[in-house]
Amino acid sequence: MASATNQLLKLSIQYLPTIATKLAITTLIAILPLPVKAVTLVTSRADFGSNDGIDWSSLGKVFNPFAPDPSAFLPNSFSSVSEGGLALGVTVPQVNDSGITPPFVFQTSFIPKGIPTNFTDGDFLLFTGFNPQSGFPAIGNSGPLTINFDRPVSGAGTQIAVDDILKFNVFVSAFDSVNNLLGTFSVPGTSSVTLDNSALFVGISSETANISRLVFSTSELNRAFAINRVSIIAVPEPNYTLAILAFGVSSAILKVRQRR
Question: Which residues lie across from 88 on neighbouring strands?
Fold first, then answer.
């Protein structure tokens, strides 16, 4: 009996490095990014299932159209952090029209508290910028508006509306970390001043965390557009502790064997 037990122990020690290595490989496969999967368009925030997001009021600058202050304008490229700590960058290209304002955040509501739109009363909107002296419909920055995520996400989306245009098409595209196009979609949208939350929601979700960049634009040239809160399906940062532990066990066993 003792001999059989000793033999079993020797076999366990002999093959433990291989077992530990396989465990490490399995762990790495589980935590490393998976191959590219298909992306899906989602047009309902309620169905999106986000676990993170960013409200544009968090930028700390809200433009008051009834008491304009140029210091509330945003740069054409800026960085921010989501509620869950995800770093992201936003870019709205600069246009060759000195009359068009830089991007800015404003609150939508009934006058004089805010500017009425078809978002929800009280929403803070990121606006691409327009020429307030150009009449109706106002000439504006048509974007595109790009959001880059510091760490790939499984999905992101927002509501969107075009300034002074009742009907339009919205285009949204998703790219991975090496600029591969994962998918692009076109959806009809509407604008109004009813404050009824009818602004179109456009989001893209993926089977895995491979979305590094979203690009929003519309069919309306020379017209500004606005987006509200961005909902994000984020994933936790990779934890390499198990893989390191498994490789550590394997290394320790090999050293023991070498001393025998």
Answer: 80, 149
Return d(Cα 61, Cα 65) in angstroms, integer.
13
pTM of the entire predicted model: 0.79
Span 168-197, mean pLDDT? 98
Q: Supply the pLDDT for residue 38.
A: 84
What is the chain's alpha carbon radius of gyration, rounded to the nearest angstrom? 26
Say which amino acid occupies 115. Answer: I
Q: How far is CA 23 from CA 30, 175, 232, 244, 247, in A?
A: 11, 32, 32, 11, 9
- Does residue 46 surpass a pLDDT of 50? yes
Q: Are 174 and 214 in contact (CB under 8 A)?
A: yes
Tens-place pLDDT, residues 116-137: 999 999 999 999 999 999 999 9
User: What's the token pair of residue 94?
Assistant: 């600069």
Peptide bond into 152 cis (omega under 30): no
Spatial separation of the C-alpha atoms in residues 184 and 144, rounded to whole Å: 14
User: Token match 């285009």: residue?
Assistant: 171
Using the predicted structure, report yes or no on whether residue 24 has a pLDDT greater than 80. Answer: no
